[in-house]
Amino acid sequence: MKYENLITIAIDSPAAAGAGTQAKLISKHYNLFHLDTGKIYRYLGKLKIDNPNKFSYPFIEKKIIKLKLNYLNNKSLLTNEVALSASKIARDKRIRRIVHYYQQKCAYDPPKKFRGSVLDGRDITTVQMKDAMFKFYITANIKTRARRRFKEYQSLNKKITYEEVLKSLRNRDKSDKERKYGPLKKTKDSILINTTKLSKKACFKKLKAIIDKKLNN
Ligand code: C5P
């Protein structure tokens, strides 16, 4: 499909605000290719933990070229330790540039069977897909986000307290918003969705109404 005919959706959000879940629902409903870009940084964050001495730019480039999307579903990427490592390495300009190439292919040249793409992360509306047809900034209050993430960790049998989750989210929010390259911020042309008091279903209904309105015009 030609690029002009693709449906492109960019979503930014702080951690655990529900953006990943909504991006998945959107991708299923509209048959769009979905990339959770945080998983790429998590993949690199885990590589750094597992290979502290080998971790260099050429090493990262090699790994990214070979990266299979399937691997991003690996449960080992879901730990708090990996999230913090990801957030640290995501401050690096050269690493962001390497990841950028990977994301561009997913955003603008998705596999032919899809009608377009939906990417979620921290710099999607600001850097990766500035010209997306739809731009959303999904957020929720930090205690609600911490509660949701804590429940997810409990269902995965991870040993972590609610207070530790809250602290970790605070640290990541600060680092992700204040860093020099690709900081998380809401662009003027992004639609703000606050999910604090919204169920997954209600949130999707809201997003769908906005998307359908434009697509059907
Ligand atoms: O979304 P998730 O919490 O899995 O992302 C892990 C980390 O990856 C974030 O805290 C952030 O530092 C980094 N990230 C980023 N840019 C993106 C997506 C994620 O810097 N587009």
What is the name of the CATH architecture? 3-Layer(aba) Sandwich
The number of helical segments is: 9
* CATH-assigned fold name: Rossmann fold
- Amino- and carboxy-terminal Cα gap: 21 Å
Strand content: 5-15%
The counted number of beta strands is 5
Strand order of the largest sheet: 2-3-1-4-5
Q: CATH top level?
A: Alpha Beta
Counting helices, strands and paired strands, the structural category is: alpha/beta
Overall average pLDDT: 96
Q: What ligands are attached or bound here?
A: cytidine-5'-monophosphate
CATH homologous superfamily (4th level) name: P-loop containing nucleotide triphosphate hydrolases
Order of helices and strands: EHEHHHHEHEHHEH
Helix content, binned percent: 40-55%
Describe the structure.
- There is one protein chain.
- This protein is α/β, with parallel strands linked by helices and 217 residues long.
- Helices cover 52% and strands 12% of the residues.
- The protein has helices at residues 19-30, 38-50, 57-66, 80-89, 93-108, 124-128, 142-155, 162-178, 200-215, and strands spanning 7-12, 33-36, 116-121, 134-139, 191-194.
- It has a five-stranded parallel sheet with strand order 2-3-1-4-5, with helices on both faces.
- It starts with 6 loop residues before the first strand and ends with a helix.
- Bound molecules: cytidine-5'-monophosphate.
- Cytidine-5'-monophosphate is lined by residues 15, 37-38, 41-42, 83, 86-87, 90, 121-124, 172, 176, 182.
